[in-house]
Amino acid sequence: MNSVHRYGICDLVLTSNIALPELIPATEGDTECRFELLAGDLPCADGVEWFHQWTIEEDGITADGARREEPWLQLGRSSDGYVLRFPSYGEFVIATDTKSIRCCPLPDTAETTVRHLLLDHVVPLILSRREHLVLHASAVLTRHGAIAFAGKSGKGKSTLAASFALEGFPLVSDDYLVLRQRQEGWMAIPAYPGVRLWPSTVQAIVSQDLPTEEVASYTVKRRVVDTKLLRRTNEPVLLRRLYVLTEEVGLTSIENVSMGRSMISLVEFAYNLDITDRAFLRQQFETVNQVTKEVPVYALHFPREYSTLPAVREAILQHLYKDKDIDATR
Amino acid sequence: MTLHDSVRIPDEVATRKVGKETILLDLNTGIYFGLDAVGSRFVELLENSGEIAAAHRVMLQEFEVTAEVLETDLLRLAEEMCAKRLLVVEPN
């Protein structure tokens, strides 16, 4: 537990006292964030003031007939910084300056689960404090720049991104997307290799036996990391469009979204570690306004059937390539 | 609430006009609200004068609507915004 590993994730140089095989080792750059997995029986934080929680609906119905909503993640503040408590798995404490993360897992929590919570839930929240904007979205690179798919969990972000990637469009990110403003526009910053897919999706859209890895103990989702099959880009790329995914029975359609609706969509899918920080909220408000002016947002309605994915991809590409405003030399 | 009330957008609410719409952010809750073109114009006029009656006068010239219908619509919107703390009534 005393060895130190160095990795890159979304341009962040992360050191860790455990191996994080999902990430690419970092060969240069100063450490920007330090992760430490502590022994399971140590208390992580005292005197926590809880200010927010995320819930997920359980499948079961309680004895009184009500649908039970279990807290999935509780967010709080202590003298040590922000506290993220996953009631079933453990706690993460993030220093206020986001330069360190400590994790105290519950005794039965597998290290795979800790890594997943760190990389796919804690890191995007940390990045939301460091970067201009972090969205709940997946993205791929086309010859005209990156296109991103935003949506609630289960709406098909990863499936659509993987579907494009399998056709040779390099993957930029899966599930969360860091946006950074540059002179040329809003850049999508690559996250780390692989996508997380349901087993049925792996079976349906991949035409060969693909080695996959466990994501976490509590989900049957599989991590697909074959970088030859799913190419990825390592460089920041210009974000051309954002599609908000909605399920539809029948035809695929792409609908213009008003600027106001675009702004609300971006906020809906934006990560935010501290919703009580007014200065941050005001800053995020301005950022979202800027992104809305520069990146067109569309509603993508499509049927959730694997057999229609080629037609959905084609509709998106036709929609992208016919845009006269896109410089075809890019 | 009547046309003669004065209202203002509290400091805890940020507004931004995007196209014909206006987006409001309640900094106390982090909740965003959207207003269509009519609501957007109403808020724009309130930001200038704070008087519902003044907004009513201007909008009566700009929209094809009767004075009574516009008054009903504006007061309903103002009350709804007050209920959500996006507007506060100024004491006379």
Overall, the morphology of chain A is globular
Helix content percent band of chain A: 10-25%
**Category by helix and strand content of chain A:** alpha+beta
**What structural class do you assign from the helix and strand content of chain B?**
alpha+beta
Please give the number of β-strands of chain A.
Answer: 21
Strand content of chain B: 15-25%
Biggest beta sheet attributes of chain A: 9 strands, mixed
Run of helices and strands of chain A: EEEEEEEEEHEEEHEEEEHEEEEHHEH
Annotation, overall tally of beta strands of chain B:
5
Radius of gyration of chain A: 20 Å
Characterize this entry briefly.
Chain A has 330 residues and is α+β, with helices and mostly antiparallel strands. Chain A is built from 6 helices and 21 strands.
Structure description:
The complex is a heterodimer of chains A (330) and B (92). Chain A is of the alpha+beta class and 330 residues long. Chain A has 2 domains: 5-130, no CATH class; 134-194 and 228-321, Phosphoenolpyruvate Carboxykinase, domain 3, CATH 3.90.228. Chain A is built from 6 helices and 21 strands. Chain A has a 9-stranded mixed β-sheet, covered by helices on one side. In chain A, strands 10, 11, 12, 13, 14, 15, 19, 20 and 21 form a 9-stranded mixed β-sheet that branches. In chain A, a hairpin with a 5-residue loop joins strand 5 (49-61) and strand 6. Residues 58-63 of chain A have low confidence and may be disordered. Helices cover 45% and strands 23% of the residues of chain B. Chain B has helices at residues 37-49, 52-62, 67-83; strands at residues 7-8, 13-18, 21-26, 31-35, 88-89. In chain B, the strands form 2 sheets. Chain B has a 3-stranded antiparallel β-sheet with strand order 2-3-4. The longest helix of chain B has 17 residues, at 67-83. Chain B starts with 6 loop residues before the first strand and ends with a strand. The mean pLDDT of chain B is 93. The A-B interface holds A 258-264, 267, 272, 275-276, 278, 281-282, 285-286, 289, 292-293 and B 12, 14, 16, 18-23, 25, 27-30, 32, 34-35.
